[in-house]
Amino acid sequence: MYGIDEKMLGNLDILEAYPKLYTRREEKVQVEMNDGSSKLFHAWTYLLIQFSREMLDLPHLSSYSSTGPHNLPYMARYLRDKILTANDLELHYTAEQ
């Protein structure tokens, strides 16, 4: 759980394709603190609108690390948005004899 401001909430809405793909609602979340006490928070949660039962059969991760064995490190959006075309590349090759 993260503490965020309205601007970051807007960024998360974009990331989660809210409201097209996901909806969000505020939920009460009981969190156990490091000192053993618990505290009640209000947290925004994103929920998939068109959930299908078949999704439960798909592979899933019990935890995630951007540097995990999947070899899919996090890449900033401005880098993902660039579409690489052949014109963007400088190609060099040598014909085999």
Keywords:
disordered C terminus, two-stranded antiparallel sheet, about 100 residues, alpha+beta, single chain, 2 strands
Lay out the secondary structure.
Layout: H1 6-15, E1 22-32, E2 38-48, H2 77-80
Antiparallel strand pairs: 1-2
Plain-language structure description:
- The protein has helices at residues 6-15, 77-80, and strands spanning 22-32, 38-48.
- Helices cover 14% and strands 23% of the residues.
- Mean pLDDT is 82; it is low at 91-97.
- It is built from two helices and two strands.
- The protein is of the alpha+beta class.
- It has a domain at 1-49.
- A two-stranded antiparallel ribbon has the order 1-2.
The whole-angstrom Rg is: 21 Å
Q: pLDDT below 50 for ≥5 consecutive residues: which ranges? A: 91-97
Number of strands: 2
| Count of DSSP-assigned helices | 2
If strands are numbered along the chain, what order do they take across the biggest sheet? 1-2
Helices and strands: which structural class?
alpha+beta
Q: What best-fitting shape do the alpha-carbon axes yield?
A: extended
